Amino acid sequence: MANEITGLMRRAARVATLSCVSLAAIASLAPQAQAIECRGRYQIISGNPLSTPYCEDNYLAQVARSYGSRVSARQIRNNPNKKAEVCRFMGFDNRVSDICAGYRDDGVRGFR
C-alpha cells in the first residue's frame, strides 16, 4: 500500500512539473504586451496618433503639474472627482480645455 501511494505521489509530481514546463513554454511564445506609447495627448497606434482617454489623462496630469499641482495620471484615471478638481483648477488652458469641457463650471463646453 505504501509503495502504491509513493508511486502515485511521484507520478503527480511529474505531471505537475511537466504542466509547469508546458505553461512556461506556451507563455514564452505569446507576444509580449507592449507599453502604451503616448505623445502628448495622443496614443501612437501603428505609427499614427490617436486621441485616447488614457493618453489624455496623462497629458492632463502633465499640464496640471506645470501649474504646480501634485497629481498623477493614475489619480486622474481612477478618480473622476480628482479629474474634475484638476479641470476646475486649470481647465481653461487651451492645451486641455476640450479634455476638461465636461468638468468646467464656467459654462464653456468643448467639442465633446
Protein model, in words:
There is one protein chain. With 112 residues, this protein is mainly alpha-helical. It has two domains: 1-33; 36-112, no CATH class. Helices cover 53% and strands 9% of the residues. It is built from four helices and three strands. It has a three-stranded antiparallel beta sheet with strand order 1-2-3, with helices on one face. 16% of the residues are buried. The model has no long low-confidence stretch (mean pLDDT 79).
The ordered H/E elements are: HEEEHHH
In DSSP terms (H or I, runs of 4 or more residues), the helix count works out at 4
**What's the number of domains?**
2
**Category from helices, strands and their pairing:** mainly alpha
What is the molecular shape? elongated
**Largest beta-sheet characterization:** 3 strands, antiparallel
Cα radius of gyration in angstroms: 25 Å
* Widest sheet: strand ordering: 1-2-3
Keywords:
112 residues; mainly alpha; 2 domains; 3-stranded antiparallel beta sheet; 4 helices; 3 strands; 53% helix; 9% strand; elongated
Compact overview of the structure:
The protein is mostly helical. Helix content is 53%, strand content 9%.
